[in-house]
Structures are given as C-alpha cells and as structure tokens.
Amino acid sequence: QSKELDQKKKVLDKIKQEEKWQEDDAWRDQREEHRRQIQAEGRSTGVKQMWETQQVDRWCQQRLRDLLVPSQVEMDEIEPELVDFMEESFNGPIVLRALVTDVLKLQGDASVVKLNLQKPALHYFDYFLKLDWEVHVAAKGEVSYRTADELIKDAADNLDGKAPQSVARNLILGGTFKIREFSSEEVPEDGRWPFLVKMKRRYRNDEKPPNLESLSRLEKMSEALRDRLLEQLQKQLGQWQQEYRDHWG
Questions:
Q1: Model pTM score
Q2: Over the stretch 221-246, which tens digit does the pLDDT of each residue have?
Q3: Radius of gyration of the chain, Cα coordinates, nearest whole angstrom
Q4: Helix 212-248, helix 57-68: angle, nearest 10
Q5: What is d(CA 19, CA 87) in angstroms, rounded to the nearest whole number?
Q6: Most-buried pick from 25, 45, 135, 195 (CB within 10 A)?
C-alpha cells in the first residue's frame, strides 16, 4: 500500500512540474520578445558598470529540462519470443527503448559575470541534478513518454484505480541518474560527468510470473541500453554548456 501511495504522489508531483514547465515556456517567450524590442530600438538595459552580474538560473534550468526530457535511445528489433510473457499485443516490430522520464531534482544557481569589455564573460553554474530513467519494451514507432494527465487516465481506465508503476508502458528496469556537483567549477577534462546510477524498479507481475530466462536476457540488454542513454546525456550536458555560453555571450 505504501508503494501505491508513493506512486500516486509521484504522479501528482509530475502534474505540478509540468504546470511549472508551461509557465517557464510562457516566460521564455515573453523574455525573448522583450530582448528583441530592446535590440530593435537600440536601447540600453541599464547603467554601464565596471562589472555586471546577471541571474540566468531560470533559463538554464528550462534549457536543461528541454534537452534531457525525454532523451531516449533504442535497441534494434528484439525477438518477439522474449516478450511472450507480457500481457501486451505489439503491432509490428518490437524494440527495447531507454528514456529519461523526469527531472526529479534540479537545485542550484547560475549567473553570468561580466568583468569588463576586454575579458570574456564568466558563465557560472552549480546544480544538484537527479533524473528518472526507464527501459521498456515498445512497438517500433510507438511514443514512450506519457504525461501526468495520460497516467491519470490510465489509472481511471483500470478497474483497481491504481497509479501506473512507470511513465512508459511495459517497464523492464527503472531507476535514477544523479550528479551532486554539476558545476562550472568542476568540469571534467574528458567531459564525462560523474553520474551515480541506481536501479530502483524491475518488471513484476505477480498474477502472471515471467519466463525467468527471457526476463534475465531482457534485463542484461536493458542495462547495456541504459549505459548508452547515459553516454547520450553526457553529450547533451556538453551541448547545454556550449548553448549557455553562446546564448549569454
């Protein structure tokens, strides 16, 4: 029962997060329009000083979210016999897919410091980042990510009214990626940030136990696919750093 309550809380938290994302999208559009007006009129945004600090945390968080959710990688078609134990009929080829389903935590700050006209700006950021990931079985071309509204509808359609155990259907493995210090002061030389990887959920069906040999193969394939997803995230964080510098000059 406690797991069911935790899952329902997770769905409600997801609703609040998606509402905040919509507000951020509106804020972004308003801000970009304001910047265009200033540039068109040739106006200054304030009194020039020897150095300036500009808070850019909201833009940084929003851009990270846009890049990371729902990042995904896919494995080539898998044998249909491997998923015979699932209570699901797949239309067409079957694939294994890993994706980031949520930004569970993104706490910290970011600011651009301009010392003078002769020196480049300092693009500071320091975040605690925690992501939720899942690996699941899907029909090729099927959309994996489900919004909070879709999860609630799925719960309503089930007779027991229980919240879905995963954002994607037919979960094999799920867990979290976490970086305690995603910081401009601690940029790794090889560009690979030290993610802590945790496994928290596995396929389970008490009413129809799976074929253990097939499930074991799927789990090993899922772990390899999860690692590929992590490699993609590393590249996306590097992309975010470059966009941060380019956007804020």
A1: 0.78
A2: 999 999 999 999 999 999 999 999 99
A3: 22
A4: 150
A5: 33
A6: 135
